[in-house]
Each structure stands twice: as C-alpha cells, then as structure tokens.
Amino acid sequence: MEWTREDLDAAMAKIEELASTDMEFRKLCLSDPHGAIKQATGKDVDPGYRLKFIENEGGYETFVLPDFKGLGDELSSADLDSVAGGGSSTKSF
C-alpha cells in the first residue's frame, strides 16, 4: 500500500499522541518500529523500509544529524548560502 503525505502526517500525529501517553506503545516504537506503525495506523510499512525511533532524554535536546555527504562531495549553492555570512540562529543552545 502506498503512503500519501496525508497518511504520513496522520500517522506521525497518532504515533506522537500514543507514545506520549502509553508506555507500552512507546516501548514498541523503540523495539519494533514497523509493528508500532501497524498498531497505530492499521497500515503495513514495506519491510525493506528502514525506520528507527529514538528516545528523547530529559535535559537534552535531540537532533537527528543529516546524511553524511563525504569529504569529496561538493556543497550545493543552498548549502554554501546556509553557512556563509555568519547568519544568526533563532534558537540558542
């Protein structure tokens, strides 16, 4: 079954809701992400689709790092623009 953008948005909202109130569901997310999605939405995820939930630890802000592009890869114009000029961030750490 194909997933639409609306399906994904609805799934994420449902998973967020369940994971914030149901400890057993939260544990399922961490141990069996595909099973958790199936339980929350009734829809299967392609078994070859790699998916991982991570626990947010209190006292820390959790960030997911972008894909590594390697040392030999050139930066795109958008990447260069985002790091050039010392722009300010709206969030302090």
Written overview of the protein:
It contains 4 helices and no strands. Helix content is 45%, strand content 0%. It has 93 residues and is mainly α. Helix 1 (5-21) crosses helix 3 (33-41). It has a domain at 1-57. It has helices at 5-21, 23-31, 33-41, 77-83. The N and C termini lie far apart (41 Å).
The tally of strands reads: 0
User: End-to-end span in angstroms?
Assistant: 41 Å
Number of helices: 4
β-sheet strand percentage: under 5%
SSE string: HHHH
Q: Write down the Rg.
A: 18 Å
Which class do the helix and strand fractions yield? mainly alpha
Report on the biggest sheet.
Answer: none
Basic shape: extended
- As a percent range, the share of helical residues equals 40-55%
Which regions are unreliable across 5 or more consecutive residues at pLDDT < 50? 88-93
The overall average pLDDT, rounded, is 83
